[in-house]
From TrEMBL:
Protein name from the UniProt record: Aminopeptidase N
Domain Peptidase M1 membrane alanine aminopeptidase positions: 218-432
Superkingdom to which the source organism belongs: Bacteria
Domain Aminopeptidase N-like N-terminal per the UniProt entry, residue ranges: 96-179
InterPro entries, per database record: Aminopeptidase_N-like_N (IPR045357), Aminopeptidase_N-like_N_sf (IPR042097), PepN_Ig-like_sf (IPR038438), Peptidase_M1 (IPR001930), Peptidase_M1_dom (IPR014782), Peptidase_M1_pepN (IPR012779), Peptidase_M1_pepN_C (IPR024601), Peptidase_M1_pepN_C_sf (IPR037144)
Keywords assigned: Aminopeptidase, Hydrolase, Metal-binding, Metalloprotease, Protease, Zinc
Reaction(s) catalysed (UniProt annotation): Release of an N-terminal amino acid, Xaa-|-Yaa- from a peptide, amide or arylamide. Xaa is preferably Ala, but may be most amino acids including Pro (slow action). When a terminal hydrophobic residue is followed by a prolyl residue, the two may be released as an intact Xaa-Pro dipeptide
Recorded GO MF terms: alanyl aminopeptidase activity; metallopeptidase activity; zinc ion binding
Cofactor: Zn(2+)
Pfam families the record matches: DUF3458, DUF3458_C, Peptidase_M1, Peptidase_M1_N
Enzyme class: hydrolase
Organism in which the protein naturally occurs: Ruegeria pomeroyi
Length: 850
C-alpha cells in the first residue's frame, strides 16, 4: 500500500541524477506468478553533479540478488526503492528480481491481458519491473532477452536473435525507462513495409489476437500516412528497421509510444466498417499518428522531468491535429477540437483541479495526464506558431531537432529555440505554461469618423494556489465585414499583451461587423456583446469557417439561456439562420452537421455559474430537448433533402468526404425521429450495413423510447465483439432519461458481460453516466452514490482509472446546496476508505478542497 501521507514533489527541487547509464541489459524469464528479471546496468558518475547518492526506484519487487562489479551486496530496501554505497567510478550493477504479472491488476509495469504479457511504463511503471533510476532524464541503450513459451516475443528496437523459446532485441537509441516495452503472446501480424525518404526499408507489423486480423488494414494505412507526413512536413525520418504496434484489451490509456513498439488499447487501433463508426476511424487515425510522431517529439527528444510532460504531449497533440487537418478538413477538425477543449479542459481549468500546463508540484504524476497538459498544451503551441508565423515556426522546429536530439529537455529549451530564431523575448508568453485558469477576453467596440476601435481586455480568474494573475500574450485573430457581408479587412492577428489595450482600424466607409478570435486563436472565454442580429449576420456571412460556426453556437447558447432563465420561446433568429446554412449545399456536409450541434449541457451550466446563477440540470435538459424539438419542426421540409444528400452509393470508405455525409444524414435522422417517432430510424436500422449507420439509427430509436427489439438484436449480433459491446453498454446509459440514467447504469453493471476490471468496459458504463449531465446530477443523488460505490470497488484494483473517473465530481461547486451536500458526502465516503490509493486520494482531496 501507498503511504498514508504522500509526499509532494516540486519542480523547483529538480536535481540531476548522480550517475549516467551507458548500457542496460535485461533478461526476462516469463512466468505468470514469478517472472524473473535479471538486469545488468553500466553506471558512471555524472560529471554534471557532485551529488553521489545512489538510489534506484523499485516497487513491489522481490530482490533475489544484487551485485556491484560482480561482488554481492545487501542494499537497504524501502517500499520505494533501494540505496547502497557504490564506487566513485564506472561500475556494473547486477540484480535479479521476481515479479508477479498475473497479480498486477493496476496495469502498470508488466501485466497479463487475456494471457498475453504486456507492459505500461509511463510514467513510473518501470520501477515495478526492476530496480532502476526511473526518471526520464536517465537515458540509455537497452538490450533485452525474453525467455518464454509464447510464439511472439517483442521488445524495443531491432530484432537481434530469436529461436525456440527466446528472442533478443537491441534498441540503439538511448531512451528513458518509461519508453521500455515488452510483449509476449499468441499474436498474429498484419504486416507491410515502408520505405523512408532516404531509402531505408522498414518492416511494419500490427500484432493482434487471432480473430482480429480483419480489423488491421485501416490502422496500417494510417501508420504509413503518418510516416510519410512527418517526413514531408517536419523532415522527420523513422530510425529503426522495424516498427511494431500491438493491440491490448486491458489498457488504462489510449496508446503508448514505446520506442519501436507502440502498445495500443485495442479500441484505439482495431477498426472495420461493420464494427467501427466514422468517429472511431478518425480517432484511430489520429492516435496512430500521435504515437508515431512521438518517435521524434518525445522519444528522440524527451522530457527532463515529468513537470515537462507538455513538452512532448502538447507538441505531439498539435502535430497530430495538423495531420488530421491536412488529411481531412481543417475547419471541421478545428471546430471539433474546440468542442472537446470546452467539454474537457475548460471545466478542469475552471474548477478545483485547475493547474498550469506545466504543473509545479504533484503527488502522483498519473493524475497530470490531463486535458490541460495535452489539449491546452497544444493550444499554446498553436498560439506560438500564430505569433511567430509559419516560416519561423518551421525554422525553430528544425533548430529544436538539431540542437536537442538525444536530450531530455525543458520548456525553457523549447522556448529558447523560438527566441533564437525570431529574436523575440518570450518571457511573457511563457506565462501560458505557468499560469492556470482560462483567461476571459472582453471586447468593446467604438465607431467614430471612419475609425473602428476594438478595446480588448483580459482577466484570468484566481485558481488553486494562484490568487493573482498577470496579463498573458493573447493572439487575437480579427477580421472585419462590411454591412453587405463582404470582408473589408482580412484576418490579422492582434497581440494583446496588456490587461487592456485598444486597436484601431481607419479609413472605413461604414461601421463594420467584427469577427473576433477567428479560428479560435487562443484558448479563452470570449465575452463579445453582440446582438442576436449581429450574430445572425456572422452566421450568414463570416468568411472564417470557425467563427461562422461559433456565431451559430453563440446564438443557440443565448437562445437556451433565455429559455432556461426567462422561460422564453426558442429564438427564430437562430432557427432561420441555422436553416439557411443547412440549405446551402455548397458547404461541406460535415461542417453543416456540426452546425446542428448545441452547446453541451455542462457548458450551459458553466455559463450560468459564471453569470452568478445556480444551474438546474433538469431545466437545462428540458430546454435542450425543447429546442431540438422546435428545430425539427422548423426544418421539417428540409430534413428529407438533407437525408437524400447524405445517401452514398459507393462502397464504404472511412474518409472525410463519406464520413461528413453520414454525419449530416445522422443529424437529420435524429431530428426527423422527433417528428415520426422513429419510423424512418427503424427502416434505416433494418438496412444499415456499417456501424456508423447502425448505431445512429439505434440511437434515434432509443431516444424515441423505442428500439427494444433492435437493442436485443444488436447485442446478439455483436456479442462476440468486445469493442462493439462496449458501445452497446454506453449507448443505453447515454440515452436514458435523466431520472433513469443511474438505474440503467446499475442494471448494466449487474450484466454478465460487465467485466469491471477492464477499463474500456468500466468507462463504457460509468464514463457515460458521468457524461450524462442531467442524469449524473439528478436531484435524487443516485448517480453520485452509484459511481462512488464503484470507485471504492475499483480503487484497490486499478488506482489510475479510478482517479481519472473522480473528475466526474470536479464541477460540484457549481450546483445548489442540496447537490453539494450529496456529492460532498460521497467524496468523504470514498476518502474515508482504508488504504485508498495515492492517485485517488490526491484527486479527491483536490476536488473536495477545504
Ligand atoms: Zn502522447
Amino acid at each position: 500500500m501507498r503511504d498514508a501521507a504522500p509526499n509532494t514533489i516540486h519542480l523547483k527541487d529538480y536535481t540531476p541524477f548522480g550517475y549516467l547509464v551507458d548500457e542496460v541489459r535485461l533478461t526476462f524469464d516469463l512466468a505468470p506468478d514469478a517472472t524473473r528479471v535479471t538486469s545488468r546496468i553500466a553506471f558512471r558518475p555524472n560529471p554534471e553533479t557532485t551529488d553521489r547518492r545512489f538510489f534506484l526506484h523499485g516497487e513491489e519487487l522481490r530482490l533475489l540478488r544484487a551485485a556491484i562489479d560482480g561482488a554481492e551486496i545487501a542494499p537497504e530496501i524501502t517500499d520505494e526503492g533501494l540505496t547502497c554505497s557504490v564506487p566513485d567510478a564506472p561500475f556494473v550493477w547486477e540484480a535479479e528480481v521476481e515479479i508477479a504479472p498475473a497479480a498486477n491488476t493496476a496495469l502498470e509495469g508488466l501485466y497479463l491481458s487475456n494471457g498475453m504479457y504486456c507492459t505500461q511504463c509511463e510514467a513510473e511503471g518501470f520501477r515495478k519491473i526492476t530496480y532502476y533510476p526511473d526518471r526520464p532524464d536517465v537515458m540509455s541503450t537497452f538490450t533485452v532477452r525474453i525467455n518464454g513459451t509464447h510464439p511472439v516475443l517483442l521488445s524495443n528496437g531491432n530484432p537481434v536473435d530469436s529461436g525456440e523459446g527466446f528472442a533478443e532485441w537491441h534498441d540503439p537509441w538511448p531512451k528513458p525507462a518509461y519508453l521500455f516495452a515488452l510483449v509476449a503472446g499468441d499474436l498474429v501480424a498484419h504486416s507491410d513495409t515502408f520505405t523512408t525518404v532516404s531509402g531505408r526499408e522498414v518492416d511494419l507489423n500490427l500484432w493482434v489476437r487471432p480473430g482480429d486480423e480483419g480489423k488491421c488494414a485501416f490502422g496500417m494505412e494510417a501508420l504509413k500516412k503518418s510516416m510519410r507526413w512527418d517526413e514531408e512536413v517536419y523532415g522527420r525520418e523513422y530510425d529503426l528497421d522495424v516498427f511494431n504496434i500491438v493491440a491490448v484489451d486491458d489498457f488504462n490509456m489510449g496508446a503508448m509510444e514505446n520506442k519501436g513498439l507502440n502498445i495500443f488499447n485495442s479500441a484505439a487501433v482495431l477498426a472495420s466498417p461493420e464494427t467501427s463508426t466514422d468517429d472511431n476511424f478518425e480517432r484511430i487515425e489520429a492516435i496512430i499518428a500521435h504515437e508515431y510522431f512521438h518517435n521524434w517529439t518525445g522519444n528522440r527528444i524527451t522530457c527532463r522531468d515529468w513537470f515537462q510532460l507538455c513538452l512532448k504531449e502538447g507538441l505531439t497533440v498539435f502535430r497530430d491535429a495538423q495531420f488530421t487537418s491536412d488529411l481531412r478538413s481543417a475547419p471541421v477538425k478545428r471546430i471539433r477540437d474546440v468542442i472537446d477543449l470546452r467539454a474537457r479542459q475548460f471545466p478542469e481549468d475552471q474548477g478545483p483541479l485547475s493547474h498550469p500546463v506545466r504543473p509545479e508540484s504533484f503527488q502522483e504524476i498519473n493524475n497530470f495526464y490531463t486535458a490541460t497538459v495535452y489539449e491546452k498544451g497544444a493550444e499554446v503551441i498553436g498560439m506560438l506558431k500564430r505569433l511567430v508565423g509559419d516560416a519561423a515556426y518551421a525554422e525553430a522546429l528544425d533548430l529544436y531537432f538539431a540542437r536537442h536530439d538525444g536530450q531530455a529537455c525543458t520548456i525553457e529549451d523549447w522556448l529558447k529555440v523560438f527566441e533564437d530564431v525570431t529574436g523575440r523575448d518570450l518571457s511573457q508568453f511563457k506565462r501560458w505554461y505557468s499560469q492556470a485558469g482560462t483567461p476571459r477576453l472582453t471586447v468593446e467596440e467604438a465607431w467614430q469618423d471612419g475609425t473602428f476601435t476594438l478595446t480588448l481586455s483580459q482577466e484570468t480568474p484566481a485558481t488553486p494556489g494562484q490568487p493573482d494573475k498577470l496579463p498573458q500574450v493573447i493572439p487575437v485573430a480579427v477580421g472585419l465585414l462590411n454591412p453587405n457581408g463582404d470582408e473589408v479587412r482580412a484576418t490579422e492577428v492582434l497581440e494583446l499583451t496588456q490587461a487592456r489595450q485598444s486597436f484601431s482600424f481607419d479609413g472605413l466607409a461604414a461601421r463594420p461587423v467584427a469577427s473576433v478570435l477567428r479560428d479560435f486563436s487562443a484558448p479563452v472565454v470570449l465575452d463579445h456583446d453582440l446582438s442576436p442580429e449581429q450574430r445572425a449576420f456572422l452566421l450568414a456571412h463570416d468568411t472564417d469557417p470557425f467563427n461562422r460556426w461559433e456565431a451559430g453556437r453563440a446564438l443557440a447558447g443565448q437562445c437556451l439561456l433565455d429559455m432556461i432563465t426567462e422561460d422564453a420561446a426558442p429564438d427564430t433568429a437562430y432557427l432561420d439562420g441555422l436553416t439557411a446554412v443547412l440549405r446551402d449545399d455548397g458547404l461541406d456536409p460535415a461542417y453543416r452537421a456540426l452546425m446542428l450541434g448545441l452547446p453541451s449541457q455542462s457548458e450551459l451550466a458553466a455559463t450560468l455559474h459564471q453569470r452568478g446563477l445556480i444551474p438546474d440540470p433538469q431545466a437545462i435538459w428540458e430546454a435542450t430537448e425543447t429546442l431540438r424539438q422546435t428545430t425539427a419542426q422548423h426544418m421539417q421540409d428540409l430534413l428529407p433533402r438533407l437525408r437524400a444528400e447524405s445517401q452514398i452509393e459507393a462502397p464504404f470508405r472511412p474518409d472525410a468526404d463519406q464520413a461528413g455525409k453520414r454525419a449530416l444524414g445522422s443529424a437529420a435522422l435524429a431530428l426527423l425521429s422527433r417528428l415520426d417517432s422513429g419510423t424512418q430510424a427503424a427502416a434505416d436500422y433494418a438496412c444499415a450495413d456499417n456501424m456508423t449507420l447502425q448505431l445512429s439509427a439505434l440511437s434515434c430509436l432509443l431516444k424515441a423510447g423505442k428500439g427494444e427489439v433492435e437493442l436485443a438484436a444488436f447485442y446478439d449480433q455483436w456479442r462476440g465483439d468486445r469493442l462493439v459491446i462496449d458501445k452497446w453498454f454506453g449507448l443505453q446509459v447515454a440515452l436514458a432519461a435523466p431520472e433513469q440514467a443511474a438505474e440503467t447504469a446499475r442494471r448494466l453493471s449487474a450484466h454478465a458481460e460487465f467485466n469491471w476490471r477492464n477499463p474500456n468496459r468500466f468507462r463504457a458504463v460509468f464514463g457515460a453516466l458521468a457524461m450524462h449531465h442531467a442524469g449524473f446530477h439528478h436531484a435524487s443523488g443516485a448517480a453520485y452514490q452509484l459511481l462512488a460505490d464503484w470507485l471504492i470497488r475499483l480503487d484497490p484494483v486499478n488506482p489510475q482509472t479510478t482517479a481519472r473517473m473522480c473528475s466526474a465530481y470536479q464541477t460540484w461547486r457549481r450546483y445548489d446546496d442540496d447537490r453539494q451536500l450529496l456529492i460532498g458526502a460521497q467524496l468523504d465516503r470514498i476518502l474515508a476508505q482504508p488504504n485508498l490509493s495515492r492517485d485517488t486520494t490526491e484527486m479527491l482531496t483536490r476536488i473536495r478542497g477545504s
